[in-house]
Amino acid sequence: MKKTHRKLYDSWKYKSSNMMEFNNPIFQTLLGLVIFYIGLKMFSGGMKSMGKLEHLEYFIHNPYWMFFGAIGCTLLWQSSSLSTTAIIGLVASGALPLPSAIAAVLGANIGTTGTIWLAGIMVSDGMPQGITKQIAIVHTGINSLMAIALLPFCQTIARYVSKF
User: Fold this and answer.
1) 102 pLDDT exceeds 70?
2) pLDDT digits (tens, 9 = 90+) for 150-162
3) Which of 86, 85, 81, 88 is nearest to 109 (CA)?
4) Distance between CA atoms of 110 and 136, rounded to whole angstroms?
5) Are 121 and 127 in contact (CB under 8 A)?
6) First to last CA, the chain
7) How far apart are CA 162 and CA 71, in angstroms?
């Protein structure tokens, strides 16, 4: 690189940036986290206001149905954070019993593995291959084993947790 071009290169490389510039990645990250947090709080508040859901009694009081429902919902909106926030809001409002909530969180854990499969499909132009496939299988396997091991004990876990 010629010395005349070097000055131009150094001028943009070492440009001093202001923390409050909108194109600053740190500012964008912090702003994104604040907006995400506000959105989750609003969603949780909306879930709390739902109160009792009589028409869903059978579904809500059966941990196994809640487990499969949480898998489906988390697969649909690709966010276990959103699912868990909804679950917390429903438990706080008294609409969802704790054993069903525990089963739903386990289901959300499995549902979130759909994201890695979807990412693998997008990267591989079809079924994931290589390291992407290995990561997806391990992620799905670990979450599934955990859910299979803990799902039968939802009542016991709920009794233990409710002591605190």
Assistant:
1) yes
2) 999 999 999 999 8
3) 81
4) 12
5) yes
6) 67
7) 25
Pair of tokens at residue 143 = 């979450």
Which helix (H) or strand (E) segment holds residue 94: the answer is none
Q: CA 18 → CA 13, 24, 26, 112, distances in Å?
A: 15, 8, 11, 37
Give pLDDT, residue 8.
55
Q: SS3 of 97, please?
A: coil
Among candidate residues 100, 90, 15, 83, the one with its CA nearest the CA of residue 46: 90
160 backbone φψ class: left, alpha, beta (φ>0; ψ -120 to 50)? alpha
Region of residue 94 (left: phi > 0; alpha: psi -120 to 50; beta: else): left
Domain boundary assignment for the chain? 18-49, 58-164
Give the DSSP letter of residue 112: T
Q: Which two tokens stand for residue 82?
A: 């959103």
Amino acid at 92: A
- The span from the CA of 112 to the CA of 94, in Å, is 25
Q: pTM here?
A: 0.69
Residue 43 · residue 84 · CB < 8 Å: no
pLDDT in tens, 64-94: 999 999 999 899 888 888 888 888 878 887 8
